[in-house]
Amino acid sequence: MPAELRHAGFVDLWHPGLIAVTLILAVAYLLTVGPWRGRFADSTAVNGRQQTAFFLALSTFYLAMGSPMDFLSDHLLMSAHMAEHMMLTFVMAPLLLLGTPGWLIRPVLLGRPRVRRVVERLTRPLTAMIVFNVVFSAVHLPGIYDLTLHNVPLHFTEHAVLIVTALLMWWPVLSPLPELPRLPDMTQIGYLFLNEVFQTIAFALITFADHPLYAVYAGAPQIWGITRMDDQQAGGLLMKLGAMAALVPAMWDAFFRWARRESAFRTDFTAVTAAPSARADTTRTDAPPPSAAAAQAAPALRP
């Protein structure tokens, strides 16, 4: 363990205040989806998968913001800071949407006409994609990056904005509200692919820079034999690979959902179109041939 971590205090490494916030959010969630659920209009039971997703989102939030990773990212390693940002935007944000029932956030987002209009505009796919990628790229510009790490309130605000804009970006894919619906599956693939393309710009600027970009780490001691350039390039790779690790599976999931629906539709269509001909064949098969009918009627005509 680096000396800097050994000499840091418990509060600096584990953030007890954030532990308390995480636990309060977990208890509030359990009460809301449990005993207090009847207080919400049109509320339905929240299944185990949704609850698991929510608690994984909370765990990711604490791991990124309250564990020693936060100390490393603020003082020693740019790559740790990048990992923190990727966890908040490409892990926590989608898990939070998957774990939050629509009836829980409907009163907040859609209860007031003015708020609803703003939310409807911000969750439009093109708007959401542009807002997130502009913000995500901007916070990694050297001037903004160094400024936020020297200012605690600004740094907190930066993380809050990253989380909110990441929720906007994921909304067209994982929306829990039918009033603000998800994109069709094949459109989701194109949307997610474009987000991946936008990530390439910031990735290239960071990874292929020929000098250290961030002055905040200029006086930081070298740990684990990692040079500042190695650390910066690792941060750029984490940006690219982290985005791919979230976006590519989401694209595959959308494709397989589309494929399953197409297969089911073709099966149903084939069954429906085949039914009339099958009934016609049955009618023809059940009807006796004329000669047989005449033969059956002949005894009745005899004296």
What does this structure look like?
- It is a single chain.
- The chain has 303 residues and is mostly helical.
- It has one domain (3-259).
- 77% of the residues lie in helices and 0% in strands.
- Helix 4 (48-65) runs antiparallel to helix 6 (78-99) and helix 9 runs antiparallel to helix 11.
- The protein is globular.
Q: Uncertain segments of ≥5 residues (pLDDT<50)? A: 297-303
CA(first)-CA(last) distance = 115 Å
Radius of gyration: 29 Å
| Count of alpha/pi helices | 14
Secondary structure: number of strands: 0
Count of spatially separate domains? 1
Mean pLDDT: 90
Specify the biggest β-sheet: none
- Estimated share of beta-strand residues: under 5%
Morphology: globular
**N-to-C SSE series?**
HHHHHHHHHHHHHH
Structural class: mainly alpha
Helix content: over 70%
Summarize the structure.
The protein is mainly alpha-helical and 303 residues long. Helices cover 77% and strands 0% of the residues. The chain contains 14 helices and no strands.
Explain the layout of strands and helices:
Elements: H1 3-7, H2 10-14, H3 16-33, H4 48-65, H5 68-75, H6 78-99, H7 102-110, H8 113-122, H9 125-138, H10 142-149, H11 152-174, H12 185-207, H13 228-286, H14 290-301
Helix pairs in contact: 3-4, 4-6, 5-6, 6-11, 6-13, 9-11, 9-12, 12-13
